[in-house]
Amino acid sequence: IELRVASLAGAGVPESRLVYDNHDVGSMYPLDWSPDGAWIAVQLTRADNTGQMGLVSVRDGSLRVLKSSAWLGARQLFFSPDGKHVGFDLPAGDTRNDQRDVFLLAVDGSREAAAAVGPSDETMMGWSPDGTHLLFASDRSGTVALWAVPVTSGRPQGSPVLIKPDIARRSLGVTTSGSLYFGVHAGDRDIRVASVNLETGALVSPPGTFVQRFVGFNDSPSWSPDGNQLAYLSRRDPLGRGRVLGIQSVDTGQVREWQPKSLNIFQGPSWAPDGRSVLVWGLDLKGRRDAFRIDAHTGDTTPTGATAGTVPQWSPDGKKLYSSKHIEGNLKFFAEWDLASGTEREVIRRENMGPPFLSPDGRTIAAIVDESQTSSVLFLIPVAGGAPRALLRVSRPEALDRRHVAWTPDGGAALVHVLDKGGEQGALVLVPVDGGQSRKIDLGTRVWGGFGFDVHPDGRQIAFVAGENKAEVWVLDNFLPALNAKTSGGNRQ
Fold first, then answer.
1. Does pLDDT of 490 surpass 80?
2. What percent of the chain stands above pLDDT 70?
């Protein structure tokens, strides 16, 4: 990971200059510039998963670490107008979770103070241009609103005051004239369900939005084994915070939501064969990777003990898990975990291989491999061992989305997502395992890649993600007079 800067002066494509490069750093995000342009605030993660918040010198690339912890993860940080302090948000307590508090820290590391803490979820939003108030978003009033707390010499003074209800959390900062810019999610990309004829690929009834809660933030649909419930992942805002496992009844529309407090982050989901729990993969509060079982009726979360990679799959008898594990570079292998004995067996290893997707009978794995810069291939891999078989090859400019494959309930065909030229959307294609003719499935709309799709056990419905992915930048003007009036006592809330 490299941190670079580029000048916007002159015509044509700007040239970039390397500022910071360290092979021990696995990820790094620039958060803000110091007012004098001499420093860039960054959040980075070391190879040992240690999180660090620091300042990188634009002149010589040196790193000044401000905070370091196994759980540290600042999402938004802004320098005070005088450049002497930074305000930022961190997970509440010594854990990785989605509830966050806001803090103040002197850039020389001499003093830290809590600016907004408590049972609510706070997000750093910026400063008033004169540096007398720190701005933050909070759900303490029931909905996410903009608040301000007076600050003197890097310490909060007095109680926060409400500035504006109903605001998005993604701040871009405050201008010197006092305008707050922020990002807003305005799209309707969400889970759709369409009825289709898999034998002909024809659309039977047009797709409709299945989940009516938090529309635009739901994805990764998975039908229960009996087809009576749909599990999905729900995000509460564009930053991916507040991840929730949702389970909706097909018959009644009733929704159960579980937010595992013991997990920092999770992906998935997929149902257990008995339909009593849902399998997800992710990290616990100490950053340990595992596959986790979430009880569909209580939300209780337990680790399986399989240090799984991406998209773990249950065997039909529920006794084994299959997942991919990273070795080095682009090399991965598929592993089989016996949950009773805790033993692991390698099924196959290969470069540029996507996650495994187990057939309904548990005998075959479907996976997509990017063979070169020009083609991607759907392979069928025998679980018991043996040579993989290429089933479908797609050449550029199209590509197979290797992040997801679905099986028909009878195991007679696999569904893959063929991406359009250079895009993240495309069409689903049904590929018979006996070598028959592949055919496009008409869903009445294009499908978004990376968000999963699933075939209903009746073989007549497909859940997928479609819609418009739209983001907007908004500006909030003229809030400083209201702020000054409230803090001076001229306007009661």
1. no
2. 95
Between 7-11, 75-79, 271-275, the lowest mean confidence (pLDDT) is in: 7-11
Question: Is the distance from CB of 229 to CB of 265 less than 8 angstroms?
Answer: no
Alpha-carbon distance 466 to 451, whole Å?
A: 9
Q: Which range has highest mean pLDDT (136-150, 314-328, 471-485)?
A: 136-150
pLDDT at 371: 85
What length does the chain have?
493
pTM of the full predicted structure?
A: 0.79
Q: Give every CB contact of residue 423 below 8 A, 6+ residues apart in sequence.
A: none
> Do residues 73 and 91 make contact, with C-beta atoms less than 8 angstroms apart?
yes
Whether 491 has a pLDDT exceeding 50, the answer reads no
β 161-164/180-185 pair status: unpaired
Helix H or strand E encompassing 371: none
- Longest Cα–Cα distance in the chain: 79
Rounded CA separation 214/255 (Å): 12
Cα separation, 154 vs 133, in Å, equals 10
Coil vs helix vs strand at 325:
strand
Start-to-end CA distance of the chain, whole Å, equals 47
What integer pLDDT is reported at residue 73 of this predicted model?
A: 77
Burial (CB count within 10 angstroms: exposed 0-12, middle 13-18, buried 19+), residue 245: buried
Residues 6+ away with beta carbon under 8 Å from 486: 161, 162, 163, 493
CB 368 within 8 A of CB 375: no
The residue type at 78: F
Looking at beta carbons, which pairs linking 303-310 to residues 24 or more positions away fall under 8 Å? 304/279, 304/337, 304/339, 305/337, 305/339, 305/342, 306/337, 306/339, 306/344, 308/281, 308/337, 309/281, 309/335, 309/355, 310/267, 310/281, 310/355
Q: Are 190 and 211 in contact (CB under 8 A)?
A: yes
pLDDT: is 266 or 488 the higher one? 266
Nearest to 249 by CA among 228, 280, 227: 228
Helix (H/G/I), strand (E/B), else coil: 123:
strand
Q: How confident is the model at residue 444 (pLDDT cuts 50, 70, 90)?
A: very high
Strand order in the sheet with 190-197: 202-209, 190-197, 461-466, 454-455
DSSP state of 446: -
Apex 453 CA angle, 254 and 455, nearest 5:
80
SS3 at position 119: coil
Determine the Cα–Cα distance for residues 97 and 103; give it in Å rounded to an integer: 16
